[in-house]
Every structure is written in structure tokens, then in C-alpha cells.
Amino acid sequence: MPYIRLSIARPRRGEEKRFEEVMRKLAAVAGESAGCQASYVLKPNDDSGDIARIAIYDEEASAESAANSQTILSLRSEMHLVCEPGHTERAFFSI
């Protein structure tokens, strides 16, 4: 049963380019993780400024393993420096 991780955040003013780079790196590293079926960076069809990252895994254990890797932990720390407070991190199981 696929397990999906979704992050939605908005970059701090002046950090838009850096924020997108970090999100792309996160998506690339997640996409190479064992059990990851696909990983994308998304922009909305509006002017909200939000950027989302979605990763689809075979199961929750694969997602947890990827999330706890040093590379992803480091990139997430960097992401927190360049995004607005209050971003959304969600996980879903397919039904």
C-alpha cells in the first residue's frame, strides 16, 4: 500500500531561488531512496508562492528510513532557514 509524504511551504522573501533549490535536492535524494516510487517538486496554479514536495513510497518504513538519513535531515534543516514559519508536513496511506 503506497505511503505518501507531502510538504507545502512558502519561501522567505528574497530566498525563493535558494528555497526551490533545496526542495529540488530533497526531492532528488528522496527519489533515489530505497522504496521511493516517485518524488516531485510542485508549484500551484495561483500566486500563493507556495511550493510543495511529494514523495511516494512503497510503505511507511521506506519513508521513515529516507527521512532519517543524514542527507535529508541536513537538507530539511536548510529548508527551515529559507522558508516561512508554519509550513505543512503530512503523510498519507492510499485507501
Sum up the structure in keywords.
single chain, 95 residues, alpha+beta, four-stranded antiparallel sheet, 3 helices
Ordered list of secondary-structure elements with their pairings:
Elements: E1 3-9, H1 16-32, E2 36-42, E3 51-57, H2 60-67, H3 70-82, E4 88-93
Antiparallel strand pairs: 1-3, 1-4, 2-3
Q: Can you give a write-up of this model?
A:
- This protein is an alpha+beta fold and 95 residues long.
- It has a single domain, classed as Alpha-Beta Plaits (2-Layer Sandwich).
- 40% of the residues lie in helices and 28% in strands.
- The chain contains 3 helices and 4 strands.
- Strands 2-3-1-4 form a 4-stranded antiparallel β-sheet.
- The chain is globular, with a radius of gyration of 13 Å.
- The mean pLDDT is 95.
| Tally of helical runs | 3
CATH architecture: 2-Layer Sandwich
Instruction: Estimate the strand proportion.
Output: 25-35%
- Examine the coordinates and then state which fold CATH places here, giving the name of the CATH topology: Alpha-Beta Plaits
- Supply the helix-strand structural class: alpha+beta
Quick take:
It contains 3 helices and 4 strands, in the order E-H-E-E-H-H-E. It has a single domain (3-93), classed as Alpha-Beta Plaits (2-Layer Sandwich).
